Amino acid sequence: MTLLEISGLSLAIRGTPILRDVSLDVAPGQIVAITGESGSGKSMTALSVMQLLPDGAETTGTIVLDGTDLMTLSEGEMCDRRGNDIGMVFQEPMTALNPVQTIGAQVAETILIHGAAGRAEASQRARAVLDRVGLEAFPLDRYPHELSGGQRQRVVIAMAIALRPKLLIADEPTTALDVTTQAQILDLLRGLVDDFGMGMLMITHDLAVVADMADRIVVMKDGEVVEQGETQALLHGMTHPYTRMLFEASDHVVDLPEASEGAPMLRVDEVIRDYPTPRPHLFAPHGRFRAVDGVSFIMNAGDRLGLVGESGCGKSTLTRAILGLEQIQGGRIELDGQPVFTGKRPNLAVRRKMNVVFQDPYGSFNPRHRVARLVAEPLHLLDNPPSGADRARAVADVLEAVHLRPSDADKYIHEFSGGQRQRIAIARALINRPELVVLDEAVSALDVSVRARILDLLVDLCGQFSLSFLFISHDLSVVRRITDRVLVMQAGKIVEEGETEAVFTAPQHPYTRALIAAAPVLPKIEALRA
Amino acid sequence: MFRYALRRLSSLIISLAVASLVIFLVVEVAPGDPASYMLGINAQPDTVAALRAELGLDVPRYQRYFDWVSGLMRLDFGTSYTYRTPVAEMISDRMRVSLPLAVYALTLSTLIAFPAGIYAASRRGKAGDTAVIGLSQLGVAVPNFWFAMMMVLVFAINLRWFSAGGFPGWEKGFWGGMKALTLPAISLALPQAAILARVMRSSLLDMLDEDFMRTARAKGLSRRHALWKHGVRNALIPVLTILGLQFSFLLAGGIIIEQVFFLPGLGRLVFQSISQRDLIVVESVVMLLVFAVICVNFLVDLAYAAVDPRLRTRT
Fold it and tell me: Residue B170: which domain range?
């Protein structure tokens, strides 16, 4: 018996084809995961089921839910189905809730608009649903901003399941969450599917999550389904080269060259970074929030050091302090024996020795500058910056080093894909031959195949430039592959430090153990074949 | 919420103190001695000195500042140099026209702008939206005095529904006063409504792209319901900001409209006082306007907090 049957679904938005002949089924109590890289059409497939496509969308095919073809329903009839027969959970819990309404009202709204209960009963039922998703401790009159990301995602789930829909669509439900929170939310979703006998259509790019959760896997690429099947069958006998490429790229092993034994380069000593919090009352002094609390470590030249921790643990704050962007309230940070921050501003003599690559390849470039200017920007830190032909040659060299063409220097940033932009960001970080490159979640926003190539590039550059880098990430599997040593940070403190492999195979601190246990693991392809 | 209000209130008091000092200093350093201006260029030096003493201009500046401020607190604004009547009386006479006019105009502009903005946003890109944008373009572009004169031409001269100008006073009855203020209020309101409608529309359109609007649709709300239940309140913040600015402007900014309709309002009082070097009136009116602006801002701040719970906890 099938609950949802999509067959021959094609979609074009303003004439541009988005989906081609997509067919898949979901049975009651079954979790079907659609996976693929960005632009593969997996979210659009979900929105087609909801009939919440952007303006100008034209669809053909059939989407049959419980015997009714949703494509033939009017908008009014569809409104009756949404929230009632189909619930949906979204990726970004921080923005998915109305900031000016209480969580109780938002959950009760699902019940009220479908006329399932009166106001008083609706609010009772909202209470019950919030309890079911694990928010027993939260009164109905809380506002979303008083909740953490994981808690907000629970509210979104509560809204989606308030009327016990037959089908739950979850679009990247845990992508924006930390690993430990992700594990809890995935548990919750699986529990709901079992308890309610719902069918679940889950969209995610994370193959480890897919392998862990799904009964069936649908792999999409460029708007088409390239392969689908029962999870175990598909994992053991993937036939399509794209599927295999995806799995291999997700677990891409790099050949990190042997680290050279260098002299101590970056010395972080008992660093404290406080933020002022609002005054408790009008004439009281500001309170303090200690984001980095007595952190010490030494990084040698040639080190590939990882820094892992969950959001809010202070890793970004520590990064900014190391880059000399902010003043610290205690301790010392020195590069080659010189402080990174002097007086009220960064010490330029030190600043030129390090550069940074940020997470978002779309937000970290000025869109009005050409690539040549973007890449050459760090050169102004030098005493005698090269000009004219020298400068052009420096830009060309560094673009070639990141496997782009020298002619790309004349283009604007919007002409490049996400992966290419991240290469440009790396080129920018390398142009003045820094001693230290800080990679702040530098591959986190990239698709697995692109990420694999960027990791290869980093390894390649390690050889070319005898690179030392500090690799900051929440993604444990990547850190494990690309670093020699790792620091684990929790609540502003380094709780564990050591050789990467040693830390991952035999974690000492309970927090490290919890992190590693919570991270979903991709089954090894070789093991599956054996 | 209470603490938030208290903080806004303390910043209100500080703003007032700073504003009073700045106004006093600016007016003081402005060229032109009121005494010699009043007596004409041929006046004898000792006559001028005597008048200066009489007007209280001969005491030290800081003394005059404190006298002025403490007077303000007792609602004693001093005596006009030109008319020798209490400034408080002159201002209160004018406020009886200007304040109702401003409130009237603001009410009209809100009543026009909110529905127009919401209607346009709910019909993005369709004919209704285009019509609202076009009209608001026109409202912003055409000067309000031109509107005023056209309305006088149509409604006062041709149709004879309203009088062309003047103000009978509230003594003759509420409706008579309101009737006299109607044409001026409409001409003040139209350009304001045009701006406000655009802000409302674009603010709402921003909201339509928000994730929580998609969540609302996924719950089963229709497009229109989602807009009303989740969009409008979130869209209000920028609208409230503009509304606050507009009220302050309407209170004193209607000089031209007051001239067109021959209304005895605050704007005209300031204009006359400046040309007659009646500094004490200028100071007092400006201070009053500053007071009004700061109070309106305070109310807008409170309104923000009423709309947006995130602001209540932030101090």
Answer: 100-278+292-313
pLDDT digits 0-9 by tens, A247-263: 888 888 888 877 777 88
Q: A407, A410, A440, A406: which is closest to A425 by C-alpha?
A: A440
Q: Do B307 and A52 touch (CB under 8 A)?
A: no
Q: How far apart are CA B68 and CA B55, in angstroms?
A: 12
Encoded amino acid at A63, one letter: I
Q: How many domains does chain B have?
A: 1
What mean pLDDT do residues B15-21 have?
A: 87
Phi, psi at A269, each rounded to 5°: -130, 110
Binning pLDDT at 50, 70 and 90, where does residue B199 land?
A: very high
pLDDT in tens, A195-248: 999 999 999 988 889 988 999 999 999 999 999 999 989 988 888 999 988 888
CATH of the domain at B235: 1.10.3720.10
Query: Which of B12, B215, B222, B225 best probes binding to A when mutated, by most A CB atoms within 10 angstroms?
Result: B215
| Residue the block writes with tokens 């303006």 | A55
Q: What is the Cα–Cα distance from B215 to A47, expressed in whole angstroms?
A: 12
Find the farthest-apart pair of alpha carbons in chain B and give their distance in angstroms, rounded. 85
Report the alpha-carbon angle A421-A425-A431, nearest 5: 135
Q: Does residue A529 register a pLDDT over 60?
A: no
In a domain, B213, yes or no: yes
State how far the Cα of B108 lies from the Cα of B188, in Å rounded to an integer. 9
Indicate whether B119 belongs to any domain. yes
Residue B315: which pLDDT band, with cuts at 50, 70 and 90? very low
Predicted complex ipTM exceeds 0.95: no
Identify which of A356, A326, A309 has the alpha carbon closest to the alpha carbon of residue A470: A356
Assess A278–B contact: CB distance below 8 Å, yes or no: yes
Interface contact A113-B7, CB threshold 8 A: no
Cβ-Cβ pairs closer than 8 A, A with B, add up to: 81
Q: What pairs with residue B307 in β-bridges?
A: none
Query: Domain for residue B307, yes or no?
Result: yes
Q: Is A92 on the interface with B (CB under 8 A)?
A: yes
Nearest to A264 by CA among A224, A296, A288: A296
Question: Which residue type does A33 have?
Answer: A
Q: Does A90 touch chain B (CB under 8 A)?
A: yes
pTM above 0.90, yes or no: no
For B210, nearest residue in chain A (alpha carbons)? A95
CB contact (8 A) between residue A82 and residue B217? yes
Ramachandran region of residue A170, left (φ > 0), alpha (ψ -120 to 50) or beta? beta
* Helix H or strand E segment including B310: helix B309-313
How far apart (Å, rounded) are the C-alpha atoms in residues B34 and B280?
9
Q: What is the pLDDT of residues A261-283, one digit of tens each?
A: 788 889 999 999 998 887 766 67
B298/B244 Cα distance (integer angstroms): 9
Residue type, A153: Q
SS3 for A478? helix
Which residue of chain A comes nearest to B207, CA vs CA? A98
Measure the CA–CA gap between A524 and A527, rounded to whole angstroms. 5
Residue of A88, A101, A282 with shortest CB distance to B218: A88
Query: Which of A415, A461, A421 shows the shortest CA–CA distance to A437?
Result: A461
Q: Smallest Cα–Cα separation from A306: which of A451, A482, A159, A157?
A: A482
Could you tell me the two tokens for A134? 């694990």
Query: CB–CB of B222 and A87 under 8 A?
Result: no
> What's the whole-number mean pLDDT along residues B41-58?
75
Q: What is the mean pLDDT of residues B144-151?
A: 84
Would you say residue B185 lies in a domain? yes
Burial A409-425 (b: 16+ CB within 10 A, else e): bebebeebeebbbbbbb
Closest Cβ–Cβ partner in A87, A92, A278 for B211:
A92
